[in-house]
Amino acid sequence: MTRRHRLLAAAVAAPLIALSLATAAPVQAASSPDSRRVLPGTHPAWAQPSADQGPVQSAAPVSVRIYLAGRDQAGLEAFARAVSDPHSDQYRQYLTPEELKERFGTSPEQVAAVRGWLASTGLTVTGETEHYLVASGTAEQAQQAFGVQLHSFRRGAETYQAPDADASVPSDVAGAVLAVYGLNTAPHQVHHGGGEGRPGAAAGPARRDTLPGPASAFVNSGPFSDYYGSNPATGTPPAYGQVQPYALHGYDGAHLRSAYGAAATGLTGEGVTVAIIDAYDSPTLGDDVTTYAAAHGDAPYGKDQLLRYDPLMWTHTQAPSDADPTGCGAQGWYGEQTLDVEAVHAVAPSAAIRYVGATSCQDPDMIDALQRVVDAHLADIVSNSWGEAESDSDPALDPVYGQIFRSGAAQGIGFYFSSGDDGDDEAATGKKQTDMPASLDWATAVGGTSLGLDRDAAYSFETGWGTHKAALAADGQSWVNFPGPFTSGAGGGTSARVPQPAYQRKVVPTSLSGANGGRNRVVPDIAAVADPNTGFLVGQTQTFPDGTVRYSEYRIGGTSLAAPVIAGLQALAQQAAGCALGFANPAIYDRFGSSSYHDVTDHPFGPDVELAEVRVDFVNGVNAADGTATSIRSLGKDSSLHAVPGYDDVTGVGTPTADYLTSYADDHRARPRQH
Question: What pTM did the predictor assign?
Fold first, then answer.
């Protein structure tokens, strides 16, 4: 489709903006000209002596971002905690963006001090925003500035530059510097989710400043069940003692609103704004979401209900390749964006949506998009269906993400992140770990379930989303190596580097928080449907093998679905509350053990009842020209993670009910804990 709907307005980003000139306290003075403060996480774990290829050339070019700390980080942390705590007298007494900048933003004195220090080392400031400076120069100059030696290190088949130890900054500018990014040149890019069966990016080059057209098509094959168990796969071998049903055709908004109690409350998200952050921006989004809403009985979009905020240019749009592993594959992000918008609108049809596209999937570009939401307070609820394994993420950026999230919390903005689609990550990375930024203590991590509704679309059951897959044998008489290997599941587990936050202490079992020694953050916090076999129908313009480009629908899942579903439900809860929910984790855990949640387990019908679905797929992903493949997908088998009674590392505190949504109507002030 080429017609552009006027109701889907687009907004274009402004160029880098100048620093605010608010009055500030002076920068901390140095106690000694040789004293320095270390910036933790700047020496990557993979840069080991065994991988050291020697020093980089002193004249090698270096470009870094120096993120600015602003005034009174400790004060910002304390304020954000107070306004997020239902038992604090300051609960929900948020700041405006202007008040936040005046109280905690970067001062002119801090900027001048950092500029002077950089100039003294020979580095040149080549870019500036109110949150960071970009400095360029040589390796020799960077080494002097940050007190390290830059070496080349092997990482897999590639070689990258990295410091030989943690970088540091002089004490006289330490109070102004939050973090430095760029000394380590390994690519750090986040990935969208979506679960098995999602169309990916097409191979081949694309201009770095132009978005490619619609992605290659993906189509589900039938037979389908209309609701869980409605259509037994007669003629296929039994599993777990009986013939299992075909996978679902796919849920829509009416199903999700029924499952999680929204339909019973009458809440629609009126007066609430949700932001969605992904990389790039689908060129067909406007027509796609409008067509989808009409096809599924969702409310039509009102004037300016969906606005899109894009940067001035796109980068890394090509698909990743051996020649250029930094490619993000822009086409693969189109389906993610479309899913996020359609899911939020389906659950909260009256909520305003603000889509913020990042220049690329590189960490700094995603950070810029997050920061844009906070600076302009574009929304109170921010859905993020992206992340990366903790060991692949850059710990040097943890303070930057944390600063954004705390600044958002101070204004009443909450950030929701999908917990990942690879379970404990061991199968995907060789190591049990969690995902970032979902594991940070100021983010709400959203896990996933497999959802079953009855013939009336009423809630029947949920299990933790975790799938084992076994193919149908060639003779059709058995399932090969049943139940088969783990293929996908909700991300969860215990972070290796984030300490346990206070809101988890009375809820999360010590067997989980202490899994890595000490007491650490466990994810997820809350959950919703994610299993692509019990997933959501998404409508998107796709490119078919015959060259036609047209709208079609397919079933999708992953915690990329769960995150916007929870964001939509939070919009309903905020409507009930009549004010912004802000950073929601303290309130989410405050309701643990109450009727606010479905307590999801892997065996909702008892320990002896196993659940599964039979799925038929087109071999070529589009049609039956090359035949079909039949497999059986077991439910509730998420690698080493388990959904059990109470808090667990697949679904957190559980999934929301109607009582969860309406409980916020009486939650303006402190209320008794329900532990």
Answer: 0.92
